[in-house]
């Protein structure tokens, strides 16, 4: 019977699964597939897996519990194996690789930091502080000015926005990097001008969180930093 | 025109702190991948990522920034906050939902759509270059529209 695979752990992991339920819902109890020195946490596979919130939540809750209790390799959402034998085969064939990753993860957790910026706030600041932007804005308001002036205004403002975001991003990275074992930085996107994950020693998680709180106090007007963690080390497995 | 691409491993959704949205990208896009197993199709999730690609330095972006500045009422106080990404979003992806909303709302909607099957199936893992072309060509079209409107004024 097909099984949904949640995570891989070492043999010493306590695997407290009794009160956990899987992606199929409240009656979806989990079980353990045993390899030589590795364990996989699995559940019965749903007939059809949809990436709905309940399912993703359940997947994530399983990872959170397992990671609380010891080194865990959380699988990405949605992996199904033909049967338990197929899982055992993978545990055996790739045992060395998994064991090495488990050791690297050790007793560490992930923190994710995302930065967003309120558009109107930053534009106001730019118009207040940049003489060229202010002049061009005055010239092009109410349908005035030329096409070239509008382009120039946009270019000045776009560059300013980017420079400001980059400065905030760099200060965030500079403050947090020394507190982490490892860093995974995503490219900036329209949503987040900074989006970065850190692998942090569990013993230092509280310190790390405090550091992020310090950053939030210092952040410029209109910038929001969202910090999640401690999380299962999704970005570092 | 200088086009600078940003993008890559980008969140599928965002939201207020303390809920699942901030970790969606991690649960869906990261974590261990075992190719010996079959993976459920994450139809629609990809859409949010396409939305997230940004053409920062394009004529169209410039015009939209200019328009946003022109619109600001500098005399009055702050109005309801909008996401910076509103400008970017319109530039990067015309078809995205949530144009007039915060980017986060838009992304969550895109995600929610994927849950309800409200969007057409997208080819999984479309190469980045395709997305760039798509974004850019749409940007151009939209840029043309903007210009003709303005000339008509």
Radius of gyration of chain B: 17 Å
Poorly predicted tracts of residues of chain A: none
- Classify the beta-strand content of chain A into a percent band: 15-25%
> Helix- and strand-based class of chain A?
alpha+beta
**Largest sheet geometry of chain B:** 2 strands, antiparallel
For the biggest sheet of chain A, the summary is: 5 strands, antiparallel
Largest interface by Cβ-Cβ < 8 Å = A-B, 78 and 68 residues
Q: What is the overall silhouette of chain B?
A: elongated
What is the average of the pLDDT values of chain B? 54
N-to-C order of helices and strands of chain B: EHEHEHHHH
The total count of helices of chain A amounts to 7
Distance between the termini of chain B: 26 Å
What is the end-to-end distance of chain A? Answer: 27 Å
Uncertain segments of chain B of ≥5 residues (pLDDT<50)?
1-18, 46-53, 88-153
Strand content of chain B: under 5%
Taken in chain order, the helices and strands of chain A follow as: EEEHEEHHEHHHEEHE
Strand arrangement within the widest β-sheet of chain B reads 1-3
Task: Write up what this structure looks like.
The complex is a heterodimer of chains A (237) and B (153). By secondary structure, chain A is of the alpha+beta class. In chain A, the strands form two sheets. In chain A, strands 1, 2, 3, 4 and 5 form a five-stranded antiparallel β-sheet that branches. Chain A is built from seven helices and nine strands. Chain B has helices at residues 21-29, 45-51, 59-71, 85-92, 103-116, 128-152; strands at 5-6, 38-39, 54-55. In chain B, 50% of the residues lie in helices and 4% in strands. The radius of gyration of chain B is 17 Å and the shape is elongated. Chain B is built from six helices and three strands; from the N terminus they run E-H-E-H-E-H-H-H-H. Residues 1-18, 46-53 and 88-153 of chain B have low confidence and may be disordered. Chain B has 153 residues and is mainly alpha-helical. A two-stranded antiparallel sheet of chain B has the order 1-3. Chains A and B meet through strand 1, helix 1, strand 5, helix 2 and strand 6 of A and helix 1, strand 2, helix 3, helix 4 and helix 5 of B.
